[in-house]
């Protein structure tokens, strides 16, 4: 019936390698999705995204609803055609963005009224509206409309969870397109019992995949990982799991260790626009620093991305100093490559039964590295085959 | 001895098709060179430049001398390696930029003292210094240091011409690298006798190629074309001619008709950053206009560039409205493709003996088109094979 199915190819501990079939191609999981908020991954063409190995792209419902408007995108043939990304696309529900507009939104059991960040105009999202917008956009994977809460606030987390559950049922009711997979979202803050309750309820609704919301918004890494542990035990293994908005290299390794399949994050492109390169080790290199001015080495001598294959740190620093747009492009290409390829590499390690060892060595070196500007020469053996 | 030679393959009237051999590859002329002022064509990668058919890239001596400095570029292996452009590169002499700093420079017979536009620091260019910088940069084609004058000011044009002649001799004396072709520059404003005198003098010095300076700086098109006519008769046919800083589609056609082989201009990338598409017809399309908001057509349905093959006007307008950097990239790709391919197409027409007819039809339609926002459907037959 549904064009969506998930094949679990291999497991290594709780880490999983799978294939999620979509109408726009198969996603090999674990997978990292670049974020194209406004129907473009900033400063990067789809041809470049394809070349660096990206398979899934995320776009934001809230932004596209406001500009250029989802009816316009539908009229132009849908988001795939509009933004020229022929592969799978995932859209969020708009929930997270709307709740981020803390000062200008009002939530009730039916939905949320909010003011646009672009022109202050008033709008209203309900579960039904979010689905209608996402059906206009036409992504392969769409999200139920949920309520995020500050993760340490138990009363609010509980209320938001219950509302999220009611809205999940309404989203399922509202959904019409058979060529889109609607994922339910688990909420519950950092509270194990709430997360357990939420995962069990959302799982009971029969979604083809599950998203884990409300993390990476202020809680500690320890809390995030503990929360993932709880859900791994409850969410059905035969459906993909998507950890929303999470994506440092460290988080990928830790998330995959705890059974997560799909990640997305603005980090690689945002860091790029702030002149920072993301290293496979998890560290960062700030290319503004004068120490790079005459450095003929690439960001990472072992990296096979377009930027590292062709450009010196000296050149990248020159572009930044000269305020040339190409710096954002070249750093985005490198940073996206780093995360996309880390997920692909981990998939190979899972297939070979070597991920647990890699993860242990990877996480151990994180503690000894200077996370801000590590020397590339001190990478551990974990990278030898990377 | 010299790795540079110019083969004239065909002529059609005074229009020429040739091959200029350089240490970094053959240039098929006529050719249009994208401008990479600060060692990057703004918002475009070299891979994208190559894909759109660019063969020659121009870079600016004044800008690179100030930032990051020519010794640094030499240390990084030269400009080709630094900016990752393996094909031929041309650098100007810095003369035009320095003279543009009207308020903060002082010219004498020996050279020019000026203040940096970036930090106000004081610097001095002489013919010898310009050559030394260009030897550090390492472009294939370098320019003699010249003085530009307001083209209608006869006394100044004459003084500047004589100084340019004296400096041309000093540049020849100063030049050491055998793997660079130094072009002499003809000056003389819009005055036929001065241009004739200058062309004859510069030609007598034995440069491997000649540049035509001081045009496209305020004179009328009529004056520019008349000036080109004068020089065609004087400059030796067996050496390439480069018309500096000129590059609308109309100028390409008119320049090639008058024996010019090489063009460069910031127009395509500058227009792109101002949201305008350059049309093969010579017209322009301002993509900010609301009329494009729901237009599913590409900029030009007959264009084979990456942008026109993949994107609607509606999408480009959305990127502009959303202030996304990708708009500059996609419009630059289209605009550069338009000029690079116009020059290539003209080369084919010259080889086939059909350029005179094409040029007549092309220039005729310019007069009937609305140059600001022409309908693409009214292109003349001249484009049928374009």
Largest interface: A-B, 40 and 40 residues
Quaternary state of the chains: homodimer
What is the CATH domain class of the largest domain in chain A?
A: Alpha Beta
Terminal-residue CA separation of chain A: 39 Å
CATH fold assignment of the largest domain in chain A? TIM Barrel
**Strand sequence of the main sheet of chain A, in spatial order?**
4-14-13-12-11-10
Structural class of chain A: alpha/beta
User: What's the β-strand tally of chain A?
Assistant: 16
Percent in helix of chain A: 40-55%
State the low-pLDDT regions of chain A, or none.
Answer: 369-386
Q: Name the CATH homologous superfamily of the largest domain in chain A.
A: Queuine tRNA-ribosyltransferase-like
Residue share in β-strands of chain A: 15-25%
Rg of chain A, please? 20 Å
Q: What is the overall shape of chain A? A: globular
Round the mean pLDDT of chain A to the nearest integer and report it: 93
How would you characterize the largest beta sheet of chain A? Answer: 6 strands, parallel
Which short descriptors sum up this protein?
homodimer, 386 residues, alpha/beta, TIM Barrel, 2 domains, six-stranded parallel beta sheet, three-stranded antiparallel beta sheet
């Amino acid at each position: 019936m549904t064009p969506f199915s998930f094949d679990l190819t291999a497991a290594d501990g709780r880490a999983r390698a799978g294939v999620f079939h979509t109408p726009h191609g198969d996603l090999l999981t674990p997978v990292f999705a670049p974020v194209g908020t406004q129907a473009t991954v900033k400063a990067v063409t789809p041809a470049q995204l394809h070349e660096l190995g990206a398979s899934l792209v995320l776009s934001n419902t809230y932004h596209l609803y406001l500009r250029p408007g989802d009816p316009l995108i539908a009229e132009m043939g849908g988001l795939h055609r509009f933004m020229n990304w022929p592969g799978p696309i995932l859209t969020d529900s708009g929930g997270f963005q709307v709740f981020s507009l803390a000062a200008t939104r009002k939530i009730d059991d039916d939905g949320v009224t909010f003011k646009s960040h672009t022109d202050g105009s008033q709008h209203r999202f309900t579960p039904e509206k979010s689905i209608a917008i996402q059906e206009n956009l036409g992504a392969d994977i769409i999200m139920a409309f949920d309520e995020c809460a500050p993760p340490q606030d138990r009363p609010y987390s509980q209320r938001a969870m219950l509302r999220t559950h009611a809205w999940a049922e309404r989203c399922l009711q509202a959904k019409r397109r058979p060529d889109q997979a609607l994922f339910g979202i688990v909420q519950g803050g950092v509270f194990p019992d709430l997360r357990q309750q939420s995962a069990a309820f959302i799982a009971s609704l029969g979604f083809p995949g599950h998203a884990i919301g409300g993390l990476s918004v202020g809680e500690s890494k320890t809390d995030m990982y503990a929360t993932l542990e709880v859900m791994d035990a409850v969410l059905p293994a035969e459906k993909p799991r998507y950890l929303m908005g999470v994506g440092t290299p460290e988080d990928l390794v830790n998330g995959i260790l705890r059974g997560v399949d799909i990640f997305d994050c603005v980090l690689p492109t945002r860091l790029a626009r702030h002149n920072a390169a993301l290293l496979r080790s998890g560290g960062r290199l700030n290319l503004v620093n004068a120490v790079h001015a005459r450095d003929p080495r690439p960001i990472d001598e072992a990296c096979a991305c377009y930027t590292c294959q062709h450009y010196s740190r000296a050149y990248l620093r020159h572009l930044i100093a000269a305020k040339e747009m190409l710096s954002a492009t070249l750093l985005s290409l490198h940073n996206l490559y780093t995360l996309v390829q880390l997920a692909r590499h981990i998939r190979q390690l899972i297939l070979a039964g070597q991920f647990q060892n890699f993860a242990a060595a990877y996480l151990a070196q994180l503690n000894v590295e200077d996370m801000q500007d590590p020397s590339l020469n001190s990478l551990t053996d974990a990278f030898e085959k990377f």
